[in-house]
Sequence to fold (319 residues):
Amino acid sequence: MAALKSIAKNENIAGINIGDGLVSVARIVRLGRKKILLTHAGWAEYSPDASEEEIALVIRTLWKKSKMPTRTVCGALQSRSLCLKYFKYPDLSPMELVSALQLEAEETLQLPPEQIMLDWHINRPKSDPYTQQGEPLQGVLVAVEKKQVNRNLNQLKMAGLYPVLMDVSSTSLCNLYLALRGEKVSSDHAVCVVNLSRYNADISILYNDHYIYPRTIISRSSDWESKVHYLIENISDALLYYHVKVDKTPVSQLILTGFVPDNPEFMGQIHDTIGLPTEVWNPLQDDHFMVAHNLKATKNRAEIAPLMATSLGLALRNI
Fold:
């Protein structure tokens, strides 16, 4: 993983998200300290029962249509067996962390270590990028069966792309929100950001600069309006676990993005039950977000936002 990350720093990387019958791609660059510019973007649908060869053809066609200037990509790991788990070890040294997380992954996935691929994010303050000996280690473990990663990588390679990084949708969403609205997250204010894809919901609590607590839920239906109670229950559980086990920074706002039903009753029910100020967020219309001239028509198209959130976050690896 470290080798891949070192390569990626010198590459012109595009973000690509494949899943739920949809492919979306994006390339962005940074303008100054806060603003980011979308230079290339595209999306295409494919049949849910499409073969890997058919999906590869869709990707190649989309790459040509969007005039993407690079084939080096950061992809989103797609697997329903993905382990995304918060951890906290009060008395563990950094050198012991790998063994502890490996055991955690083996227990969760019920697989031998040679069949598991794992990585982790350690929550650290920006002002102190190093964890000292004896300090609590906390963060997020990501683990999945190795063959799932290889399958995702081979799909990208089949389409003629060069994958140098794999991320998960929840952390890519966190990166996107922090890049555009990082000032809203501090040691005094935490934000809960929920991205609704067609069959998944990424629930991420951002607190204390760039600390994250994420979880992902799966829905059998793409109609979130009919699954509002299920969604509310899982958001409430995430907030409760965060307050009891993770941090005491109060969550001050709930942000919804992605495939949010255009129904005031849906939003009202979530707001009234969760009890937090609730906003629907379109990253494409954010104050700090800009688009290239050839994509101007994209910025104000509300139906595009649900398709692009994850790939925009993946494309941030470029900057």
